[in-house]
Amino acid sequence: MLHPALRTPSLVLTAVLLVACDASSPGLTGGGQDAHRFLIDYSELTESSGLARSQREDDVYWSHNDSGGPTTLYAFDASGQARGSLRLSGALNLDWEDMTAFTEHGEPRLLVGDVGDNSAVRPFVTLYVLDEPTLAAGNTSHEVTVLRSLQVLYPDGPRDCESVAVDPVEDSIYLLSKRDAVPQLYRVPLSTPLPLIVAEALGPIAIPRAAAGTEQPERVNWVTGMDFDPALRRLALTTLTQAHIYQRSDGESWAQALQRSPRTLNLPTEAQTEAITWRADGHALLLTSEGSPTPATWVTLQD
Q1: pLDDT attached to residue 36
Q2: Residue 212: burial class (beta carbons within 10 Å; 0-12, 13-18, 19+)
Q3: 47/291 Cα distance (integer angstroms)
Q4: What is the pTM of this model?
């Protein structure tokens, strides 16, 4: 069970959690909220570490396993039914930690971040860009060759990262560090012709931190996933126990938006919440946790 010190009522965003699931799923604290899980129908997906909403079908989502697994993505619908798997040719899974979806030159793309580095020893990390295939009816298997890969160096040395998002209008990829005292934001160009590039350091973000003496502070402090909303006006982050939503004003950069305090909600108790993405209408968030079968939760936001 989560330590009570990690459930801070003042940080709770009024939200309703909507799910298709069993009655034994854990609850969300505060505000008359209800929490239930649904389960993703893949026995192979046991360490869901990244999430992306399809750019071809609004109710389809992609995920992948953590480090050392096959170079495979798994598609499922909004209720967790399997839609098909996709094997990446020309890629390695050293430590896949996040993924995202975007449209480039009118074409639906997926980006997979091989960016995990728990011990901060990797000289560079790798981002893979690929075409998102059209899924056939039923749970079918596909294979796609990676379009391009980008090797990224951090200007201030190796660091662990589990959060990657793309702003296609800005033509930028954003990365957020995990194990620093305060998460550090980085940016690299999306369409660079270079195979190796040094990321631009944008500095720390403003984010609630665990109080001194909190048991297992990493459950609050470590950011494990992020995603831009479809309108590119909000950024959602998740830790193991909380989600944070940042709003961007007109003419504001993402680095500026992330200097303001976010709206924060406490998440249901899960083994390890690792990934987050937005629904196509921008009114709900989908989160997944590691587990077999994989638990997932819909969070519908109330204004």
Answers
A1: 58
A2: exposed
A3: 6
A4: 0.89
